[in-house]
Design goal:
Elements lengths: L6 E8 L12 H18 L4 H5 L3 E12 L7 E12 L3 E9 L5 E13 L38 E6 L13 H9 L4 H6 E10 L8 E8 L3 E8 L2 E12 L3
Antiparallel strand pairs: 1-3, 2-5, 2-7, 3-4, 4-5, 6-8, 7-10, 8-9, 9-10
Amino acid sequence: MEKKLSEFRTDYFLSAADCNAQQEISLPLLVQGLLDIATAHANALNVGYERLLKDNNAWVLSRLSIELSHFPSVNKSYSLTTWVEDLNRHYSERIVEIRDEKDEVIGYGRLTWVAINITTRRPADLTPLLDDIVPSRNRCPIERAPRMGAIGTPDRVSTYQFRYSDIDFNRHVNSTKYIQLILDRWGLDHFDHNQVCRFDISYHAEAHFGDVVEVRSKGDDEIQDIEIARDGAVCTRARIKFTSRNK
């Protein structure tokens, strides 16, 4: 096993088909890129899905934070570089560095992955694989995800029923679908004048096809706390921060 692959980089080109209405990469698509490069690096280290499945285990995304000065824009290149910053026998904290077409750093993502046993849904022991995961000496400057509690009485509540296109290959709701639900609470005009500068999300329980969830939010124009809950049980909690595009 090659143990020098402590960092893993992929370059991209952002076409118009991958852009949102503001002619930049959407937050869900960027987050999907973070998940994809994390998966590719884990596979390259032989600690990916297929290897864990041999022991009836799997990686589950527990928390994600992303912070950017600006988003990659249409017809421009950008790159993602990932490394493991911290790990133990139950979890791995992975960093993704985001660079623009000038190869300048424009943001970072923090992803906390937990290994679970597929049958018991309890934490798995990764001790046999720890020697194959080499943490980088690189450090991530953005803060770890905050602890987000119940939001209390929400300012706004809406409902949504998960459909076929919301379900991923594990037959539960895709991680990025929750982000789409959160962003859809604002209209085009809001995103024309504001951009996301920090986004934190924690995943607590799975949702499945046909489930009806409440999307609850509370906050102001700059910061909103959101809960997505099914039958009273919270599936995800998130915090989204905006900054004006005029700054």
